Amino acid sequence: MSMMTTATLLSAALLLLVPGILTKESVETSPIQLMIVNSISNAPNVTHTTEIVFRGILLGAMRRLQETNTDFKFTYREDPNYGPFLVSVNGVAGDDAEHTYWELLVKNSNGVIIRPDVGIGCYIPNPNDTIILKFTKW
């Protein structure tokens, strides 16, 4: 048996021995809030609770929420330079001609609201953060 084959088999065996590597059941999660704000129509804010895995990205938590809650839907497009770009939330889409878009804001546990310098595909929420998806104009 070659050294490469032995190393490959050993790596595969280690993956099977380490709990949680190949299963979702041992992944720790923490709650976050997702608040939808429409500053243009002044519709009432809607807040959902979802889970974020340790060091997981916001996009994953949003997908999880969409899979488990029929009252939350979103779409995004993949920009080749900047990654996932949020297009619509619950059927409301940004429009270049109207100068509207979905702004990403985060209210941390201290109550401070920040504008992350990354989008939904890179932002890593902290437990108990409130993620604010705000439909607004530029």
Automatic annotation (TrEMBL):
UniProt cross-references to InterPro entries, sorted A to Z: Cobalamin_Transport, Transcobalamin-like_C
Keywords, ordered alphabetically: Signal
Keyword Secreted: no
Signal sequence interval, chain numbering: 1-23
One Gene Ontology MF term: cobalamin binding
Alphabetized Pfam families for the sequence: DUF4430
UniProt domain Transcobalamin-like C-terminal: residue ranges: 62-137
GO terms classed as biological process: cobalamin transport
GO CC terms, sorted: extracellular space
Official protein name in the record: Transcobalamin-like C-terminal domain-containing protein
The organism of origin for this protein: Esox lucius (Northern pike)
